[in-house]
Design goal:
mainly beta; 2 domains; 9-stranded antiparallel beta sheet; 7-stranded mixed β-barrel; 3 helices; about 35% strand
Amino acid sequence: MIEIFNPGWLAIIVDNGRYGYGDIGVPPSSALDNFAYSTLNYLTGNHTDSPVMEVMGRGFAIMFDVDITCAITGAKVSAYINDVPLKSWTSFKATKGSILRVKEVTEGLRYYVGFSGDMVLEKAIESFSTNLECRFGGYKGRPLMKGDIIEFNNVRIEEENAVAERYIPSMNPPHLLRITEGPEIGHFTPNSLKDFLKNHSENTYSVSTKLNRTGIRLEGKPLLFREKVDKSIISEGILPGTIQIPGDGQPIIMLYERSVGGYARIATVARIDIDMLAHLKPKDKVLFQMLGIEQAETLWVKKKRKYLMTYFG
């Protein structure tokens, strides 16, 4: 088992999400950085849909009551097992009685902690992921707290492994987010659209302090609606990465905790850059670049090949 000594700012259980229930308002609630999540399960020898911990903030600490293999992916961190420094994106052996501590987050925002064993948890709607708003899934439907204990089955020691530096994505700002057109892109004035896009100007947005797993609010030059165009729409389905524009003209990038939205959808973040949304921090600079659908698909295929090289190359 492991015991939570310090959950950091926020620590929850996630997996690859619950899909197929958007029509009844149930969002995916999946790990926000899918590459980090998938790689973590690879490093610890787990199934591709195994639950892991998604953590924000320094100070995270756990004690092991079993010999087990562990790894940390996602945001780069300064971490130690007892007093021995560890490297992100590298698996390591934790022995019974040892303590894992994360002292600082040096690049990115969210990091993922996984183990070579099966957490003893119950699925909710076919997933282990925590839905914080509805309070189900994960560990008792809530964030992890000091004193929580998680039991394991099928514990084993895996061969230590590491991801080559060239395959680890940069998480430092400014963040260039490539996007495709949204259904309501025509609701905005041509000049606003030019200012919105990097390939027309050097206009940037800043990440506000209003961010969570539901969405990321940006601050910058407001987008202007065309005359006689409604600033809201009848609520319709949205995907992770949908960029909505409320009445104040400031973009909101939706993440994995909503299945419908009622604001104009100017664009959607291309799949190639979706994982980066997990690492946008307050005050980070964000730029947008428009892609065509075929171009976005081509880039994603190339990135998937790079993912395969991470695991098998």
